[in-house]
Amino acid sequence: MSPTYSPTVRLRRLARELRKMREKSGLSPEEAAARLGWSRSKVSRIETGRTRASSTDVASACDLYGAGSSVRAGLVQLAKEVRQRGWWTAYADVFTGSYIGLEDEAALICQWEVQLVPGLLQTEDYARTVITAGRLASCDVEDVHRRVMARMARRTLLNRPDAPELHAVLDEGVIRRPIGGSELMRDQLTALLIAARRPNVTIRVLPYRVGAHAGLEGAFTVLSFAEEVDPDVAYVEGTAGDVYVESSDQVDRYKMAFVRIRDAALSPEASMKLIAEAKEQLSYD
Fold it and tell me: Coil, strand, or helix at residue 205?
């Protein structure tokens, strides 16, 4: 599962640094484009991360913006790293957004789930069941299998030497809903109990009795990175499309909401007890 860095994260960083340098130089996008011999849209695409700038383009921009030699060398190297292929590109037909690339380099993943077990903690059978149920068109067995394999590949993130910390808070309904039947759900709950033993995984359950809480608007994930230059990102998955929140003020709102949800949830120990009880009850259904 290499490389050890994410081209997606590097792309965000490169785009942000080039934009900051242009603004510091006092050049408008139009002026920079004219001086570089680029189109206005090329400047925009590079500064928003929609286009991977070549090392030559980055060097030219650095020269125009008056970057020092060390900054120039660092950004040119960053441009080379951006063009590397992450492991997930083998599943480009499955992972169509940039989330997996961001998740792959996150140092901390804070996840609030209201319906399903988080993808990083799903068993193969559980994943197959929810993926099949979510297909709106006729079920293509090969397509479902490929999506399941992609999810299992993604799950190995938690086993890496540089694995991120995962803090997951699950609504009690997640552990009570018998996805795939009692036996399959028992296996999934067992997997949660095992995963929670990992030093980098913390699982909490928000019990029904809490009532109104800060997570009523739906599930979300906040990704934080080891490098301070890479700002946190909030992610909301939806049927009509995924939303990436990068504004620091808005990300802070999600982070505060997660803290409130986490504080309202059971402790990790009490959560494991509740999951074990839910598993035991399934044995009698």
Answer: strand
